[in-house]
Write a structure and sequence with these properties.
single chain; mainly alpha; Multiheme cytochrome fold; 13 helices; about 60% helix; about 0% strand
Length: about 200
Amino acid sequence: MITWVRKIWKVAARPSVHYSLGFLTLGGFIAGVIFWGGFNTALEATNTEAFCTGCHEMENNVYQELKTTIHYTNRSGVRATCPDCHVPHEWTNKIARKMQASKEVWGKVFGTISTREKFLDKRLELAQHEWSRLKANDSLECRNCHDLEYMDFTVQSARAEQAHSTLLASGDKTCIDCHKGIAHQLPDMQGVEGWAASAQ
């Protein structure tokens, strides 16, 4: 193995005999453009609702729940897709989220939630991971569409107006603190610390 690595290194370190530096530089640039284009194409292909619902675990569980909410069908015709809520828009955050999602591929390969029963057993844990992520980034994905600055408090209920104008505006709370279960059904929350008080 070491001999093979040394042989490769020797070839890579040897100066080019047949090609000019300009040719190698141009070739490297073109290869870089092709790689970058392919990488971004793959990134965008994995950032679509069709990709997200391509496996039966998502198609048969959370996607069916989303279809019954205002985020899927509403009077304005604006619809949130899976990546809108689960993938940050900013490039560096998007890459970090994609790296986190590699654990989801692992779960798919090993059938972690391959049946409805397995999904329901893991649902609370999965939800808590997502709630923690949204809490940590101040509900960034929510705020991509819902901006406090443009909310019309006069058409909100008294409770919503009070929460948005004080708690949310003060920075004490973030969207996910109050809006768990907004696009998907809540898991069984029995025994979750602090849930009974916040649900009242």
